[in-house]
Specification:
CATH architecture of the largest domain: 3-Layer(aba) Sandwich
Strand order of the largest sheet: 3-2-4-7-1-8-11-10-9
Number of domains: 2
Oligomer: single chain
CATH topology of the largest domain: Peroxisomal Thiolase, Chain A, domain 1
Largest sheet: 9 strands, mixed
Strand content: 15-25%
CATH superfamily of the largest domain: Thiolase/Chalcone synthase
Helix content: 25-40%
Number of helices: 15
Structural class: alpha/beta
Distance between the termini: 13 Å
Number of strands: 11
Order of helices and strands: EHEHHEHEHHHHEEEHEHHHEHHHEE
Radius of gyration: 19 Å
Length: 384
Amino acid sequence: MKRVGIIGTGQTNHTRMRNDVNQAELVREASALALADADLDPHEIDAVVISNMELFEGRAYPELWVGEGAFAAGKPCMKIATGGTSGTSSCIAGYHQVASGLFDTILVVGFEKHSEGHTQAGMALVDPFWDRAVASGALGNFALSISQYMAERGVTEEHAAKIAVKARRNGSRNPHAHLQDAEATIDKVLGSKMLAHPVRLLDMCPQSDGACAIVLASEDRANSLCERPAWIAAAATRHQQPYIGDIDRRLITMETLRDAAREVYAKAGINNPLKDFDVAEIYEPTTYTELAWYEALGFCAEGEAGALIDSGETEIGGELPVNPSGGVLCANPVGATGVIRVAEAAKQILGRAGDYQIDNVTTALATGYGVYAWADAMVLRGTA
């Protein structure tokens, strides 16, 4: 397999509503920025991968509607929709297409316009008999797993509030972030509206309109176009579709994320994730899930996520900065969210992260979703 590098990224400013553009124009905005970052013209792209959760906008086959916005006219174009992992799964698909030699240069672009759809209705309106046990509405799903996690692992509402404060303060450094709050406090988080115990309003990610794109290139092409590409050292995906009643402690252990992480760690020679990674961009749709991800990803032992956030080691300036961009808690255009995680990890290696740039980043982790059913993981490196 050929080595593959990320040589350019681009994203819109994410916000509650982008009613100044349609979906294709939103995609064009991010795609053009990524191509400019890679110093490429549209005709130099061989193929396009589009990521979108079409369920949320209620429009089938979005690639037929937005493909031209991604410069895909006359080119092979693939759409991927795998829930919260849509973005990372699309990046992994693009990676394999280049690594296999099928294409030399691919544009991966994810987007979502939540303002044009009904996200919770799309997730919760399932068959009342056959799919009741899926608990597919995000709030009920998270509240159930979080309650179990808190009871077994001893994390508290205060630990979760510290995650929210870290995210919103980091987001205040990121011009693309939907939610930004440099003055966030634990009291403000704990005083926010209760949605479904123990999840409060400020424990949750927003619903955002936005798009993000990356440019993937084969080794020779990457080296000729970019001084220091973000090389993809390893990638893994784990998708299941279990019923809630069948998965027992997987709500706590996050089996798919653990398995995906183990695979990429073995491939990339990661032995101590907390020390071996210089930065991590992980998909945390709630504050509590970031705590659970710390354990599932091996940043700490089981039951020690609360102590890890207390230590400050996942802050900018700590041993392993987690989501210096603000993460999903600050911007969540779902079809683009996983692409954003990969793009933000790549930007740290490329040295293009601006006010939230971490010093001397050579190894980065990006993950997609991570709840019991779906998870992706990617390791990026600054040297081939």
